[in-house]
Design goal:
Blueprint (H helix, E strand, L loop, with lengths): L14 E2 L5 E7 L17 E6 L2 E10 L4 E7 L2 E2 L5 E2 L1 E13 L2 E14 L6 E3 L5 E8 L7 E11 L4 E15 L14 H7 L3 E2 L6 E2 L1
Length: 209
């Protein structure tokens, strides 16, 4: 399979950390970042969630130099009264996905979430994104209001190169524990035509035997 050639020439962008070779950008939980996506300049992020809900944000990191290692930490979210909601950090892993059901070209998408240990050391791949998924979970009894957490990145010598205060707002209502219909996103008509034995012809869903 072939990896799209245009991804080899994307400038990573982002905002520089205190290490001149390491850059970062924030993203919301639903964004699907790929290994060579161009980063924006989001230097801060905040999230909101109801009671009895989970929510997350993403931190994308890359280095323009080989052999760079980092570690990451994030405190639990806490409010002015000392109440807290827990935080977990995951490292996103990419999987190879055929483009629109066709095996000739493939692309890489984040799918696996690997828990990051407290004493972590993560090697950065030169000019490719390393993405962290930072998640918090509220309970039915979690007090509503504003919470803050401290996110830090350290270099391989344990020098702090990035420190950010992340805000989270817990809304004053509870999500009930009910199950709803499953849904699927990102489906294209070509895929279904191929599964039925037709040769796809464009995005309109027309096919020929």
């Amino acid at each position: 399979s072939l990896y799209p050639a245009y991804r080899a020439f994307v400038s990573q962008g982002g905002t520089k950390t205190d290490d001149k070779n390491i850059y970062y950008d924030f993203a919301y939980s639903t964004e699907k970042l790929q290994p060579r996506d161009n980063l924006g300049k989001d230097t801060d992020i905040s999230i909101s969630l109801a009671k009895n809900e989970r929510e997350a944000f993403q931190l994308a990191i890359y280095s323009d130099k080989a052999d760079k290692k980092i570690s990451i930490s994030c405190s639990d979210f806490s409010n002015s009264s000392g109440e807290s909601i827990p935080v977990r950090i995951f490292n996103e892993r990419f999987v190879e996905v055929p483009a629109y059901g066709i095996n000739k070209f493939t692309d890489m998408y984040p799918d696996g979430l690997i828990p990051v240990s407290e004493n972590n050391s993560i090697e950065l791949t030169e000019n490719e994104l390393t993405i962290f998924y930072i998640e918090t979970v509220s309970e039915k009894e979690t007090p509503a209001g504003e919470y803050t957490a401290n996110l830090k990145i350290f270099d391989e010598n344990d020098k702090e190169i990035l420190s950010k205060e992340i805000k989270s707002e817990v809304r004053d209502f509870v999500l009930e524990e009910k199950y709803f219909s499953e849904s699927a996103m990102g489906l294209f008509s070509n895929t279904f035509w191929e599964l039925m034995g037709y040769e796809a012809a464009g995005y309109g869903g027309n096919g020929a035997l």
